[in-house]
Amino acid sequence: MPDQNITSYVDPTNGPSPVESEKPQPNGSRTTSRSLPIRVLKRLGRVMRYSFKKTAYFVFLVLAVILLFIGLDKGAELVLSRSYLAYVYPQDLGMVKRDFTQAVSYYDYDLNPGVCILFNQQKGNRFEYANNAGFRDPRAISPEKPDDEFRIILTGGSTAFGMGAAGQAAMLTNFYYIEHRETIAHVLERILNATAPIPGKKIRVYNAAVWGYSYQHLLFRYVAKLRRYKPDMIVSLDGANEIAPVTVPEKDWDYFRQGQYNEILRQIFSYSRPGMEAYATLWLKNNSFLATFLWRGIDPFVTLETGMRMHQEAASGQDPAEIAGAMSREERSRMVAENVATVVRVIEDYHSVLQNDGVPHIFALQPLLYLSKKPRHEWEKKVEALAEHKQYYDAPADQIYKYITERIAESAQRKQYFVADFTDYFDDTSEWVFTDWCHLTAGANYLIAKELANIIKESFFKIPLTEGDRVESKDSFFWSPIEAANVVYAPPADEEKNGTKNMLSGYPGRSLYSSKEAAPGDRLEIILDLNKAFSLSRLRLVWDNNAAPEEWAVDISLDGETWKTWIQGSDNELDNFSWWPGYEFYGSQPIQARFLRYRPVKTSDRSIKMRSWTVYR
User: Fold this and answer.
1) Is 320 helix (H, G, I), strand (E, B) or coil?
2) pTM for this one?
3) Number of neighbours of residue 173 by Cβ within 10 angstroms
4) Strand 582-602 to strand 526-543: parallel, antiparallel, or no bridges (unpaired)?
5) CA distance 324 to 313
6) What is the pLDDT of residues 289-337, one digit of tens each?
7) If you average pLDDT over residues 579-593, what whole number do you get?
8) Which pLDDT score is estimated for 316?
9) Taking the CB of residue 569, how many other CB atoms lie within 10 A of it?
C-alpha cells in the first residue's frame, strides 16, 4: 500500500495536485492563482504614479505660466502707475485698460463712458472724459430731464465732436486739437443762454457726436439710445462721412455693412477664426495691464479692423479701374447714385422718427476743404498739398460730396425738414478754417455755432434776430485783439520772468503774470489799450491757483478816461476747463471798446496772479 504521506492521489478530472501547482518556474519564482490580481494592481499603480507625475508637471507648468503672467501683469501695472496715465486716471488706474470705443451691435460702436478722450494740454486744458452716457461732456446726464432744463443734443461725426486735425495733417499742424470749451456744442449753449434765454429754464447742449459716424449711426443710435434722454431738440452736423461709403465699388453694396467697425463685429459674431482672434485680443487689452502696456493705449478696434470703410482711400499706386471692377463709367455712376439715394432715404427715415417723437431738429451739412472756394490760408495750403482724402477709390471727394448735399437738399424740400447747408459758408473768409480735409478750427466752430444759434432763435424760438446776431464780416470773429494790446498800467511784476506779456499770449500755460503786493491805497488793476476800437462779446480770464478774487470787474472805455462796467463776476462762477480757475463770459450784445480795465473788487490778496486774459468779438 503506498505511503499516503509521500504521494497523494490525483484525480485526473480535478486538475493538478497541490504539490504540482507549486512547481518551481524557470525563473525561480512560484506562480499561484492569487498572484495575477497582485500583478495587475502593481501595474495599475505604476500607471497611476506615472499619470500623476505627468499631471502634476502639467499643472505645475500651467501654474508657473499663470504666476508669470500675474507677475508680468503686476509689473506692467506698476510701470503704468508711474506713467502719465496715473495722472489721467488718479481714482481708478484700471480705466487705462478701457478703449476709447466699445462695440454696440445695433449701431456699431460708441464712446466708452468714463474714458479719457483728450490728454493733450498745450492749451492749458484739463484732461477730458466721456460722461456716464459716453458723450463728450464733463456733466453727467440723466434720462430724467430736470424741469428747469431745455435739452439740446448735438450729434454727428468728428467735426461735431471737435476732432481738431487728423491723419497726416495732425503732425503738420503740431497736433492741433479742439478742447471742450471750443466745441460747437459748448459755444452753442453759451450763445443761446446769452442771446435767447428761456424764462425759468437753462439751455444745455450735450455733445453726443462720435468720430466716424454717418447717418446710419445717427438714426440707429437715436432710436436705441438718445431717445431715452428726452431731447427737446436734435442738431445733427455731418455729411463728409458719407463720401467713403457711397464710393465703395461693390455690386452687392449694403450701407449698413459700411460702418466703422462693422466687419470686425460680424467676424466676432460669426465665431470665425479672425473674429475669435480679435475677440481674444480685445479681451486681453480690456482685462490686463500687460496687454494695455504692450498696446500702449492704442484702441485695438482701430488696429484690428481690416476692412474699415470710413475715411479710407484707394491703396497707393492701385489702379482705380481695378478697384471698381473694370465697370463702365455709366455703371459706376449709376452705382454711386443708387448708394447716395440709400443714404438720403436713411436721412428721411431719421427725420420721420424725430418728427413722430415730436422732436424739432436741424440737419446741418458740414463744410469740406476741397469743395470750399475760400482763399486758402497758409496752413490750408499746406494741408491741401497733402491731398489726404481728396479721392476715394476712383471718385473725387469734392464732386461726390457736392452730389450728396444736392440730393439731401432736394429731399429736404420734398419732405419738409430743415437743412442748414454750411458747404460754402466760409467761402468769403481768408482766416484759418480747415485743420485738415473736413475738420475745423476753434474760430470756425464759433461761427458754425453762432449761425446754428441764429437758426434756432429765429426759426424755432420765433425770436427776431438783432444786429449783434448777424455775421457781416467773418474774419473779425477770428481776431484776438488783446494779443497785440499795450499795457497802459499794471502793478510791477514780482520777478522779471513773470511779466504782463505772459497773460496776453493766448491760452494759459506755465508762465503767468504775477505782481508784487500792492500797499493799501495803491492801484490794484490792469489797463490795456487795444490800439483801436473793437466789437467784443466774449471774454475769458484764467488766474493762478487760489488767486481768483472773491469778486472782480472788467470795465471798458473808448478814450481811456470815461469807464463803464462791462462784466462783474465772482468766485462762485469759476469753471474748471483749465488746470487753473477760469471764468468765461458770452455777452448778449457786442460792445465797442478800445481800453479794458480789470480790477479786483473784493479780495484779501493785494497782488494779481493771472495766467491768461483773452477777448474776442
Assistant:
1) helix
2) 0.88
3) 20
4) antiparallel
5) 13
6) 998 888 876 777 767 764 444 444 443 444 544 655 578 889 999 999 9
7) 96
8) 41
9) 19
> If we measure between CA atoms, which residue out of 272, 271, 245, 267 comes closest to residue 256?
245
Over 60: is that where the pLDDT of 431 sits?
A: yes
Q: Which of 136, 336, 322, 140 is nearest to 242 (CA)?
A: 336
For the stretch 529-540, pLDDT in tens is 999 999 999 999
User: What nine digits make up the cell of 394?
Assistant: 476712383
The bridge status of strand 551-557 relative to strand 513-514 is unpaired
Alpha helix positions (H), 136-183 = 158-161, 168-172
Phi/psi of residue 292, each to 5°? Answer: -60, -45
206-222 in b/e form (b: 16+ CB < 10 A) is: bbbbbbbbbbbbbbbbb
User: Can you read off the three cell numbers belonging to residue 27?
Assistant: 525563473
Among the listed residues 79, 35, 177, 170, the one whose alpha carbon sits nearest the alpha carbon of residue 120: 177
Question: Residue 168 to residues 72, 174, 310: CA-CA distances in angstroms?
Answer: 35, 10, 16
C-alpha 464/C-alpha 199 separation (Å) is 17
The position carrying cell 480770464 is: 541
- Going by DSSP bridges, is the β-strand pair 361-365/233-238 parallel, antiparallel, or unpaired? parallel
Full set of structural domains in the chain with CATH: 131-258+311-476 (3.40.50.1110), 479-616 (2.60.120.260)
Determine contact, residues 362/418, Cβ cutoff 8 Å. Answer: yes
Cell of 54: 505627468
**How would residue 266 be classed by pLDDT, with cut points 50, 70 and 90?**
confident
Distance of CA 211 to the CA centre of its chain: 7
Cα–Cα dist 258/247, whole Å: 11
